[in-house]
Amino acid sequence: MTNEALQQLIATWIPELEFTEAESQFLNIEVPAQHLHALMSQLKSNPETQFDYLFCLSGVDWGEKLGVVYHLESTTHRHIVVVKVATENREEPVFDSVYDIWATAEFHEREVFDFFGIRFNNHPNLKRLFLTEDWIGYPLRKDYEDETNMILL
Amino acid sequence: METEVVHTNFKSEEYFINMGPQHPATHGVLRLLLTIDGEIIKKVEPDLGYIHRSIEKMCERDSYQQIVHLTDRMDYLSANINNEAVCLAVENALQLEIPDRVQVIRTIIGELTRIASHCLWWGVMGMDVGALTTYFYGFRDREMINDIMEETCGARLTMNYNVPGGLMHDIHPNFVKRVKDFVAHFKTKLPEYDRLLTENIIFKKRMIGVGILSKEDAISFGASGPVGRASGYSCDVRIHHPYSAIDKVTFNEALRTEGDTYARYLVRIQEMWESLSIIEQLIDVIPEGEHRVVTNAVIKLPKGEYYQKVETARGELGVYIISTGTKNPYRLKFRSPGFSNLSLLNHIAVGGKIGDLVATMATLDLVIPDIDR
Amino acid sequence: MIQLRITEHIHNWLSGMMSEGAVSIVEMVLIAIVYLTVFAIAGLFLVLLERRVAAWFQLRIGPNRVGFQGLLQTMADAIKLLTKELTGTEKADKFLYNLAPYFVIISALMALAVIPFTKEFHAFDINIGIFFLIAISSIGVIGILLGGWSSNNKFAMIGAMRSGVQTISYELSVGLSLLTMVVITGTLQLSEIIEFQKNGWLIVQGHIPAIIAFMVFMISGTAETNRAPFDMVEAESELGAGFHTEYSGMKFAYFFLAEFINMFIISAIAATIFFGGWLSPFGITESIPELGVFWFLAKTMVLVFLMMWFRWTFPRLRVDQLLTLEWKYLLPINLVNIVLMAVLVWLNLTIRL
Question: How far apart are CA C149 and CA B271, in angstroms?
């Protein structure tokens, strides 16, 4: 399906979505945090979209907001869509986990928690993945400071 | 401080064993916490981070040419293909017109790297299962490829031959002849590999029916590369999202449906044959032309988001760049194939025996620096 | 016939010097020293041979610097092992921990004493030769189990248990395949078995069932000594080093040496029972029975090379596949084979040259 057709179809599910195609190869969907899980389930189960392959889950620190970017692909229709979710709550950012939809999210969300501090509801085993348990701070945030470990050019 | 694992439902006849981080069978520094009952495995939990070098954070402060040098420390067995990924992402963002000569040479070197990686995988696979001689045979052939790489690219492991814009320097005059000699030599060696290991009844009994992964699970866990293809999931990036000179050649995708370790093994052997076929199709028709397009010394990507996928020897590597128009990326994320392949280890190893775990891990072909970045 | 009569001369010389009782004791001590030397030299040589053969299969050279073609390499390793610190764990059961290596060494030495190197070079020629051999090799298992248990180490104990199970299972097959040959010879005494083979080697006399018995014996023998492809218990890619994880220095050397001597013993038994022991093929050098040592060693070395070839070619069997092989395949084949051999002997269908 082309990007316009996808946009028309998905817009009918949840009204508060924002679509953009500027500055990107794929269709970007921005969804508020409370509708994230519903949108993701629909994207996977709907037979016209059938996004069954989550190939990239990245955490991003947008400056004021903390967010997660999901890259989805369908193995049957071979179209790609990008879903973005963000929150302004930098102290305690929380999103819903998509582990029950795509099993690969388990490790990816642990990595996002490790580096950005974003928590995920209903995650089976949310703890740090790469860093040790007693590490303080979230390194990939833009305001992270560490004199011993960070070398700035 | 040691990572403490608290088991709340710990039956008294189960016990708890640490495999690694120094262990001959985990390829790299991986620590597996196994909960086993006699010989049966109940739970596998990987403990990562022993070789985490914060590459993604470093990329936010480095220039794009410097980032290319960081990529071949990730999956050092497919170093050239990793470099190619970042270079392609940058070139597509800048919309540079890359000469045909560069594309063809990149493809040939990428396929040679794939064969070298699989040679090492085969040698180590035999060693893990107990046939200690295969290690030497695999390395003997890999040495030939390393010598070709040393002459043309200048290094044997971390080549850095690709730069944004093309190749760092033109190929050595001996390159074509040496590659042809290698292809002819290797075609006589692959049947030897088959006679030694593939047809061996003990090997088959260790591998058939072990570590079965269904197609739905493969897609859900994000498995890519040979792991996914052995379960019937057609995921070859070279076919679905072609790059460089791949669309000029014809090759078959190595697909099997059983999803056990033997299928994964056979898929990789077939991939070696396919790579040889691709090299043969391209080696005689390298077009003349420039080996590099001149870019600015300071590369600034236009504002936007870019994603590039390539097929490394392990699976699908993705490079996701968010740029705000400055000379460093705002955020660069590497989607590494080993990361998703490792996440399915618990799913397929539970219920099997420890010997099966070793065989399964050998066929998942994990390179831990790729996972830890 | 040229007979050197070495033992007679030494006996007469000693009798001239001291009383009968003292002569017996001195002779026994001399024989013990000779066998210990044989044991040590065989061990040294076999370790080097294994390394050179492995290197040959793996397209490399192997140790060839220390001494002529590396012959002193194992001496150097032994000296290194002697100077190593004997680490022991605190919670290990001291007495059993120290006792365990001696069980394996003693059982290997006792088995060596019964094997005929040539007509006169045969230390202990009792009339239950084969039965004694099988019984002695069962004692070695105790050493393994003790070593694993007394180390107070989880992995060592798992390794010891698996190894014990494996050895006990395959002893059955070893014993039964040897019994198949006893059906033809009608005697358990080793020197008489060799005399019997002057009419042709037993593997030729017994043709089909003898060949089957030989193959079963080689497979079970390799499994008895915990060698690849049956070395899951001490596999390096698995957990630790099996039952001898906690041993270092000389005690580790004992376990290690005992494994090689066991391999030699299995090959020696096969050479004696299936291939004629110290007899020359077609009686070429029958007039010089002392050359029997050379023939015996040649046959044994061929079989040792075969066992090394197995190790460096085949992958490992999983533990449950190992036991399945024994109980579901080798044991029934063995039992049927004995019946077959008995029928052959009864109907006088053996080949006599």
Answer: 47
